[in-house]
């Protein structure tokens, strides 16, 4: 019963250690994966913004100004048709402002935002003071990673380019990993528990044999027998050697007691 109790306690200890290790591994995996995904998303946003800058610079060098001022002074300013067609091919949220902060191009994703989200996005874009800034913008039902670029026109004029991609893909990827771990973890814990139970049983098997041998020897008639010192381990070999020495001393004591009893009986019988 004691061996079974120790075996059970070792199994539960192994299982608890496995659960703790699995939990730490899962948290570390999610954290590392999240960091990698954000780095990849940041690179994509940076490349997106750089593509817009290159397109504007190319249009300027070829003599096609990206911004088109219509004949009607009251009409809204916008980029040219070819530039708009190119910008519409880009993913995510794209916004281009002139030197006065006026939006001359807004991608379909930006255009479909609610009024509050559009104001929040534009305000965050204008507040991005650094030329190559990168920041996160929280919308109503989404969070985007925003990159800002400057396209100088003159000493006191420039275009401001903003590109942003949603972080929803990162959340979906992390949720997928978490769900997989949630399904796999119980299976791993059960397998670990069975493995610990079997290993603990095999580890205590030599001790069970020693107990059986000691019980067979200590009946008083088999003190001449000794425990077998096998290759179960240095600790069990030392235990067997110690028990053998103890049994040998008991056998010697029993032999001396038998001789004393025989001699006393002989001495008592002689006068009679």
H and E order: HEEHEEHHEEEHH
Total strands:
7
Whole-number count of domains: 2
Q: Any idea of the CATH topology of the largest domain?
A: Beta-Lactamase
The fourth-level CATH homologous superfamily of the largest domain is PAS domain
Which strand order does the major sheet show?
4-3-7-6-5
Uncertain stretches of 5 or more adjacent residues: 71-75
Oligomer: single chain
Describe the structure.
This protein has 272 residues and is of the alpha+beta class. The chain folds into two domains: 23-173, 2-Layer Sandwich (Beta-Lactamase), CATH 3.30.450.20; 183-269, no CATH class. Helices cover 63% and strands 15% of the residues. The chain has helices at 2-61, 81-88, 108-111, 115-127, 168-217, 234-269, and strands spanning 67-68, 78-79, 93-97, 103-106, 134-138, 143-154, 157-166. The longest helix has 60 residues, at 2-61. The protein starts with a helix and ends with a helix.
Features:
alpha+beta; Beta-Lactamase; 272 residues; two-stranded antiparallel sheet; 6 helices; rod-shaped; 2 domains; five-stranded antiparallel β-sheet
Task: Give the arrangement of secondary structure elements.
Elements: H1 2-61, E1 67-68, E2 78-79, H2 81-88, E3 93-97, E4 103-106, H3 108-111, H4 115-127, E5 134-138, E6 143-154, E7 157-166, H5 168-217, H6 234-269
Antiparallel strand pairs: 1-2, 3-4, 3-7, 5-6, 6-7
Short summary:
The chain has 272 residues and is α+β, with helices and mostly antiparallel strands. The chain has helices at 2-61, 81-88, 108-111, 115-127, 168-217, 234-269, and strands spanning 67-68, 78-79, 93-97, 103-106, 134-138, 143-154, 157-166.
